Each structure stands twice: as C-alpha cells, then as structure tokens.
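Tutorial sheet, problem 5. The two components below are modelled jointly, 619 residues in total.
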Amino acid sequence: MRALAGIGIAALAALPLTGIGNYPLHLVIMCLIWAYVYTSWSIMGRLGMVSLGHGAFLGVGAYAVVMLWNHFGLSPWLGVPVALAISLALALLIGLPCFRFRIVGHYFALVTLALSEVTRLVIVALRDQTGGSLGVTPNTALAQGNAWSLEALQFSDKRVWFYIVLACWLAGLWIWARLDRSMTRIALEAISHEEDAAASIGINVTRSKLFVTLISAGMTSVGGVLYAQYQLYINPETVSGIGISLQMVFGAIAGGMFVMLGPTVGAVFTLLLQEGLRLALGDAYKQFPALDLAIYGLMLVLFIIYMPKGILGAALEWRARRRATPAAAPG
Amino acid sequence: MEIFDIFLLEAVVNGILLGGLLALLSLGLNLIFGVIDVVWICYAELIMIGMYAVFVLHAQYGWPLPAAMAAGIAIVAALGAALHQFVIRPVLAAEPINQLLVTGGMLFLLQAVATLAFGIDFRNLGVRMQPILVGEMSISAPRVIAFVAALGGVGATWLLLSRTYIGTAIRAISQDRAIMPLMGVNPGRVFVITSAIGGALAGLGACLLVLQYDIHPAIGLSFGPITFLICVLGGLGNLLGGLVAAFIFAQFISVGGFFFHLEWGYVIAFAFFIAVMFWRPQGILGGK
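Model answer (structure tokens):
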C-alpha cells in the first residue's frame, strides 16, 4: 500500500514533465485545490459535524490575503498567518457556543450556514475596500516581464502552482490520516453516535470538537489563499456564501467523506462532470448555461438517495463484499 | 431626541411590515420541521418558482392577477407535496443530515431549472401602486398588503392546526412521532399534507414578494438564509417562537439598514443571533 502510494505520488509529480498542455494542467491544479478544500471540510464533516459554513473560512482566507496585499503591500506570506488568525477566531466564535450547548445536526448546519452567508454580506458591504460583488484582483507583481514574484506569491508558470497545490493536497491528506489514527477521532466518533454517553466516559466533548473544527477551518482558509493567488481573481460568490459551502459538502459526499481519498474523488468527479458536459453539449452549452448545474443538482439528489457513501465509499464497500462472500461460503 | 426623526419611525414601521412577511416565510419551514423533522434548504427556491409561476401566468398568459396568484399557490403546494414524496421520503430513514443535504441538491436543481426556463434576466410584474401617506411618512402599499395577507396566512394556518381533524393529527405527530401510528394516524399521509401546506405557505409568500421585488433565479438566496436564522432563533419547530423571532429580525434589518447599509443590517442581526445562541441555545421560546 505504501509502495503503491509512493508510485502514485511520483507519477503525479512527474505530470508536468510529460509536457501536457496548459489547459489540462490548469484542470489538474483546480482539481487539487478543490480536493484539498473538500478534504479539509471532511475532516470535521465525517465526524458528524456537517458544517455549511466553510465558505466563511474560504472567503476569509482569500480576501484577507488579497486585501492586505492590495491595501498595505503586505506579502501573502505574512497575510496567511493573519488570515489563519481571523479564521480560527471565527471558528472559535461559532464553535464554542455550538459545542458548549450541544447544538448538533440541523441546528449546527443552519447556524454555520448563516456564518458563511454573513461573511459574504460583510465582503459585499465593505465594497469600498473589497470591490463588492464585482470581485477583486490582487495587484500584479508580474509587470515588466517578471515571470514570478516570490514575495507576492504570484507565478505565471503553471508548473510552479502545480507543485505548490500538490504539496498542500498531500499535507491535507497527511493531516487527515494523522487525525484518523488519533484518539480524538475515536472520541469524536463516539460523540457523533451518542453525545451524552461519550461525555459520561470522560470525553471532553467541547474540546474535542473545537480541536477538529479549528484544524478544518484553518486548512480551508489556506485553500482560499491558494484559490485567490492562483486564479488572481475572487468575488464574494465564488469564495463565500451558501453556494460554495454546499459545493464543498457535496464534493466530499459525492466522493465519499468517510474514506481518505473520497473528497479527492469527489473533486475529480465534479470537474470531469463539468468539463464533460461542456464538451458533450458543445454549442448547446452556450445556449443553456445552467444545464450543467441542473444535471449536477439532479446527480447530487440521486447520490444522496441511492449512494450516500459516495463513489469511492461505495466502490470500496462493493470490493470488500465481493472478497468476503467466497470466504464466508461453506465448503 | 434628534435621532428619532420621521425616517427612523418609517424604518421601524417598515420593519414591522417586513416582520409579518418573514413570519409567513418562516412559518412553512418551521411547520415542516416540527412535523417531519426535515429542514428544506430549498424552501426559498420554492418561493422563487412560485414567483415565476405568478409572473408567467399573469404577464405572459394574461391571467387576472388573483387567478394567477391562486394558481401559483396551488403549483407550489403541489411542488411541496411532490418534493416530500419523491425526494424526502426515500431518505426519511437515513441519517438526518442526508435529508438536509438532499434538499440542498434541490436548491441547485431548482435554480438551474429556473435559469434554463426563464434566463437570468430580472423580471418584474409591473404592478404599480401609490404609496400610502400617514402623516409625513410614506409607506409602500405592496408592503402593507403583504403584511396583512401574511398575517392572514399565519392566522389561517393556526385555525387549520387548532380546529380541524387533520390539524390535530399534524400537531399530534409533531409531539410524538412513534405513538401516533399506533393510534390510527397514517404518518405518511400527514407528512404529505404538511408538505403541501408548507408549499402553499411558500406560494403565498411568493405572491406577496412578487408585488415588491424583481424575480431572478437566484432571488431565493437573498432571503433563504434569513428564514433559516429566524427558525433557529425562535427554536426550530416552535411556531410561536418563529413569529416573535421574525419581528425581532426584521427590526434589526430595517433599523440597522437605516443607520448603516442594508448588508450591515443583516450582519447586526447575525451578531445578535450569535449572542442569543450563547444565552438561549434552544431558541428564544424553545423548550428543551
């Protein structure tokens, strides 16, 4: 398994050397960014804390860094800690009352949904600074023929971005796996099944939940930075609010949020679906711009009804069952 | 006090009028939650479909406005029942959060269908009414109509729940989901009827909103989240709490928007919401 993972990573890392075009590379980069973000979400989502508020953390990450750079000339390298601090404070502000007072399930989802929506509204309301709904572009540091600026975290070469997001995605998976082996995960799984029973055997419910929430929020906010610095354009709808928050949840669910690579499969699936529809529909796509969204929504509904464990989850389960059946058969 | 001028009073009055409308919007959502234990994330999108239905029937097919509105209410009620039957029912036994998310998928689907059918242009019913003048205040007539009609809808729902057999069954189911089937109530039927009532309330909301606002496929996003907040603030499933919360929220939005910018009204309402969560996590009128 370890060797297989090593080969897989090496093959992925060698991808830009094969001379694939700019556009395929762009798709791979977007895939990795979203895979990383969905993984960040699933870290708390799989433990029964379904947050619809991660758009808030994504938005804070993206906007804090770009605002600090545009208005104060502060390098994104220094902006990231600030963005992290704001995201963690936000996560604490919303998480503490929720976990303290046992706000779970629907309530938690709705409260967090409100958080992401308010973040969007704040970004829109600060239109003099943020550009409002029109969005904002980080001041370019690539003038005068500069191909890259380390200080501004801007690179015109997509290969640089590929390795940056690859590293982040791997780090995300590593955190996922590290948490998966931890006592906290076991405790939280117990909490998600029966909170009172878990508390009665000495699990500190509030602290365990906050710990995971802070990690998840911090990671998501870094995802916002990656998105903003790579795309060099953000607007309130694409990085915050209810739409992007639901997209994260669905990405993770479509792939399978209980397995490590599930959210990644979800990101690949979502992107392939979008690009596939674009190719398949051809000119009709321009005529019916929302057709992909309609099919996407329909598939989500069908997924949740018929395949709640997601693509990868269902596939793994199917394989396990096929292996188990002959062994269990007598004779 | 200098600050308490006529415009502030106007903002307060507008807040009360808005409160009636928000109360109606949150009532349907709250009722469905209380009975079926499901939150329709796509509730505001049902309202959006209702607005389009009224618009198409009235402006394109030339139906008289009351007929178009009655048809709009019926369409959304049918849509609500269908939503329960084909989307919610298959996941009723699944994890509660799946029920929430499946309606989130419907949100995308309904938005996309509306975009496909009607495009992204802003549509307007084109109904113009003279503002009502009270002293020096001018108050928009559609808002007054919406307020009165919304209170009428709330009252009708209350009568239905308290005076009819099916209303009694609905209230009984919401109190104890396990025991009622043993008493001879068919919960499946009650769920569908409740969904249709919830849909009809969304349809009524659509009729009132279409008088005041432009229609576009994403309009649900502009009042959906506030409706959820109101339900949570009042205590999910607590109908009276939802009404009180709606008026409180409307004041924050209206008066907050008067002093600052409209978005800040929402932000202040949200800050208040968080403060209340610390103080009364079960909602202002919620029991345990």
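Marking note: The radius of gyration of chain A is 21 Å. Full credit if you identified this.
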